[in-house]
Amino acid sequence: MPEGYLQWGPRVDVSGLREIYAPHPVKPYTVPPGGIDNLALHSTDIFTIPGKGEFSVDFSGYFRVARDHPTTTDWTTFEIFVNITDLRLFGQHKDLGEIAASGRHLSAGVVWQSIVEPGQAAAGHAP
């Protein structure tokens, strides 16, 4: 991990994981093996600076996500650990100037799949 970065949560061992770039075919309802996803990112974020007001900024950039190998290949029960290992976003606002955002924290987490039958609602969501 680069010097100056902080780590929180479990770390995905990236040795042996394949780097994945677009275009990359994805099969529906299939659990892929672990890999490092390199993804373009475009977002519009709205935030408030106390005493300055609310600002809407369009950002463009990329992020890298290390996905560990899944606990199982069963789509209905698998879990994977993920780490956002790099994040770079750039935007500009007429009142704020250029804005650069980068991750200096390794973001770790677990992802699991919840299967909802067609026509049924997931907890807290309308069908």
Tell me the layout of helices and strands.
Blueprint: E1 6-8, E2 19-20, E3 35-49, E4 53-67, E5 79-93, E6 97-102, E7 105-112
Parallel strand pairs: 1-7, 2-3
Antiparallel strand pairs: 3-4, 4-5, 5-6, 5-7
SSE-based structural type: mainly beta
SSE run: EEEEEEE
Please mark out the parts with pLDDT under 50 across 5 or more consecutive residues, or reply none. Answer: 112-127
The total number of structural domains is 1
Number of helices: 0
Say what oligomer this is. Answer: single chain
General description of the model:
- By secondary structure, the protein is mainly beta.
- The protein has one domain.
- Helices cover 0% and strands 50% of the residues.
- The chain contains no helices and 7 strands.
